[in-house]
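User: My instructor asked us to take a sequence, write out its structure as tokens, and then describe one feature of it. I'm not sure where to start. Here is the sequence I was given:
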Amino acid sequence: MRAMAWLALTPDSLVSTLALAEKTKVPPHYLAKVLQQLSAADLIVGRRGVRGGYKLSRAPRDISLLQVVRAVAQIDRITACPLDISTHSHALCSLHRRSDAAAKAVMEIYGSCSLQDMLDEPGVPTPLCAAEKGTKLSISAPHSIRP
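Assistant: Let's start with the prediction itself. The structure tokens for your sequence are:
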């Protein structure tokens, strides 16, 4: 989510994995794997090479937070007992009912919010607290990053 927020803050730039790792405080090797998943989900596009990097595949307003979450994690509603307990065949137990309610809430909240909504939310800091809108963001690659 932090990588996508940073890419939404820098929509016209290709951002290297190392620069993203530095700005988002995510270990570079882990981030590289996440970026592959985001790319496979067509949420970002990448270019290899010295001047390569990543950027959003479309406008931040066209990418929901739910799409980002689903690119890297499974989140589904619970419609039947996941343990196949026969006595739970007609109704979910209280634990699974609550787990389903939590999944439903997460899906509704993330599904109704785009990356752009996060940038435009009034009265709250810009995601990652990196810069205010209109500020030129520094996206240079760091000299060294320790995982």
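For the description part of your assignment, you could build on this observation: Strands lie at 44-47, 53-56. Try explaining in your own words what that tells you about the chain.
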